[in-house]
Amino acid sequence: MARVKLRHAARALIVDEDERVLLCRFAIREPPGTVVWAAPGGKIEPGESLLEALRRELREEVGLAVDGEPPHVWHQEVVAPGHASRHDGVINDFFLVRTTAFEPRGTLSAAELAAENVTELRWWPLREIASYDGTDLFAPRDLATPLTALLADGAPAEPIRLGL
User: Fold this and answer.
1) Please, which residues bridge with residue 15 across strands?
2) Is the CB of residue 74 less than 8 Å from the CB of residue 91?
3) Which of 51, 40, 58, 150 is nearest to 159 (CA)?
4) d(CA 2, CA 51)
5) Backbone torsions φ then ψ of 40, nearest 5 degrees
6) Could you give the CA distance from residue 4 to residue 79 in angstroms, rounded to a whole number?
7) pLDDT tens string 18-53
8) For the whole model, what pTM was predicted?
9) What is the distance between the alpha carbons of residues 87 and 7, in angstroms, rounded to a whole number?
10) Was domain 6-162 assigned CATH 3.90.79.10?
11) I need a labelling partner for 155 at 20 to 30 A (CA). Which of 21, 33, 76, 121 fits?
12) Partners of 8 in the β-ladder
């Protein structure tokens, strides 16, 4: 039986004082035309902890330095061949990072972000996520539901498990 290969990433739900969440717009190559709005973050490099990867990715993508240990709020596993390029699925660990609003600009150049399929960074009010009816997707797909609960109830004692 073939071994399942999953891409593991650390991601941040960056929420400002107006309860807007900062999301990255990913233009996915396969299938062509697919756009997904997802929390900033990325792959955990060999030897990195979740928090080390999170801190590195946030500096690179959005220019945010994270001190302390933000709460680990969600754990997502999606096992579906073809879901992620060269992988059988993904594992995403999400951390809640509260901050004041800022203009996102990381250490990666626009070309380097584009090479990672990131084409835009945008602050989204929760109501716009909940009422969105366009063709772009969110990750997780029903982002509004767990995000609403997280903002209303605060960080859970243990990460909540999410699906696609």
Assistant:
1) 21, 98
2) no
3) 150
4) 30
5) -60, 155
6) 8
7) 999 999 999 887 667 789 999 999 999 999 999 999
8) 0.90
9) 6
10) yes
11) 121
12) 91
